[in-house]
Amino acid sequence: MSKLLVLAVVAALWPVGVSQAASPPPLSAYGALPQVEDVALSPSGARVGLIFVKGEDRYAVGLAVDGAPMFKLNAGSAKVRGLGWAGDDHLLISATTTVDLTPYWGDALGDYRDENFSVGNIDVDARKLSVIFQKGHFVPAVFGQSDVRIVDGKPVGFFGGYEYQTSASGHPFVDHGYLTLYRVDLESGQARTAAVGGEYSDSSWVPGVDGRVVAHSEFTSRTGQWRLFADDKAQRLLLETNSPLESIAVAGLGRTPGAVLVDDQRSKPERYLEYPFAGGDPTSLFEGEDIQQFYHDPRTGLLLGARASGGKVILFDPVMAARWKGAQKAFPGYQVRLNSFTPDMSRMIVFTDGGDDSGAYWFVDIATGKVSQIGSAYPSITSEMVGPTRMVAYKAADGLAMEGVLTLPPGREAKNLPVVVMPHGGPLVEGDRISFDWMAQAFASRGYAVFQPNYRGTEGYGWDFEAAAWGQYGRKMQTDISDGLAELVRQGLVDPKRACIVGASYGGYAALAGVTLQQGLYRCAVSVAGVSDLKGMINRMEDWEGGRGNPEVRYYDRLLGAKSPDDPIVREVSPAAHADRADAPVLLIHGKDDTRVPFAQSQEMYSALKAAGKPVEFIELKDEDHFLSRQATRTQMIEAAVAFVTKHNPAE
Known about the structure:
The chain is α+β, with helices and mostly antiparallel strands. A hairpin with a 5-residue loop joins strand 15 (about 200-205) and strand 16 (about 215-220). Among the domains are: about 1-75 and about 315-385, no CATH class; about 390-535 and about 575-650, 3-Layer(aba) Sandwich (Rossmann fold), CATH 3.40.50.1820. The protein is built from 13 helices and 37 strands. The strands form nine sheets. Strands 30-31-33-32-34-35-36-37 form an eight-stranded mixed beta sheet, with helices on both faces.
């Protein structure tokens, strides 16, 4: 494939001009969805699938590696979450939709709206799209599981789902609480039962190389009981335990057909354990690492390696590892992420960003040494417009070592700058690293330094660092953020009197806590989909997910150090309960379709601040979810956030 050939094909299908206008570009350039959202390479390495974005529409595009177009399908405004190949002839597209499930399960759960997955199946040669569980009496969504195997040369999908019945009045309803695993022939679309889960328990299955279910797990949230079985005729029990706080999960096949991989959070740093079906002690894999993604052979499902926090790629096969190392050398000075690859790593798709790169996808052919660009994420944001980034190390007040990402405004001296503190969401997720962050770069383009602290609990810094967050929600996790700001002040990089705090999800909570639980630090706060009332959050999760035993409630219990929603610490760290202490103007932004952090959380904070006579603004994002998946509302959010910060903390 000649250099930029695929890019040229895409450009021919959708002419998109690269802005040569003013620097900096308009904020809409940052709020826009990435022009190329995801790219996947078929198992043979002969075909490429990608998601191309134009305005609010997403297009699924198929290309041969010589650049010849195979298909183009308009997915409309579907919120695409990922791509994957099932063999070389079927491209699977995962997408989510905010739906009301009340018609299927009745009113027992109240207003049960959720962000549900669907899987589209594109028959590449026929240029035909079908949707899994579109036919028959199935709830139109995929629940919990999506696997692919090539069996007897044909692609087979394994998907979790529910069948419904129809009432006498013609209404659909589900009369049970168990999940079923269905085996779907991806050529015909026919589905048949592969396994049935336990009543009111979370079930997960592992299809073997030959398409038979070889292992399954069951977790009962009411009791905390977790069991792992080998699915032979006797369904042998491999592991049984109670896990009151930590989660345990089946992560797929192991390195051989005779083993299963388990993610056991009880046993860090030996967290990822490979259990042999024949019995005996498990083998610890990826010891001491926080794994963000497992790499499985797309044909067999066998474990090939994983991606750890910080972008570290671990591959078991030394030849594959050497090929990955060689591919990285083609991009000196940039962060390189392995996006998709053939099972022998002879061809791969990588994503680069960091430095002055706003993000690009590349095709790498090891045999020929050719490297070809497929497309850019933000083509209108050119290298000179990208603010430089670096890591800043500091210590929290209790001496715990940590770091954060500092993004500087392009062309400005790093001295006494106005600053936007931007803690990440999660909170126990992979931290911020050197990369192109569209929100941080938007503020940097307007003259602000942006600091993204990796507070305690952030993954990628070891087990002790994560454990240091237990019981510290709203306490040391919060002061870790302001301790980072103090370090920037000490180094003379930022002006302590010109700081605002901006965040989304948990970062939105931290922004609210920064001006209520803390005082005297920030001139303004912007919370995007942030939690304000922790008791309300926990009560909602208990109602929806089966009481205090469910994983979400246990997650909050551990971080809060609470034993119930009425524990005094819950109110102590809830910003809405302390709205009268707010010492800076607050902007609340929230998507109406958010099912992760309810819209009511921002409504409650707004009412509390208004009742306390505090300056507050509230922006509702129509048809937007928790993840800012719509271009129009994403742009609306960043424009409003920058305008608010500029008003209360001018960059000049």
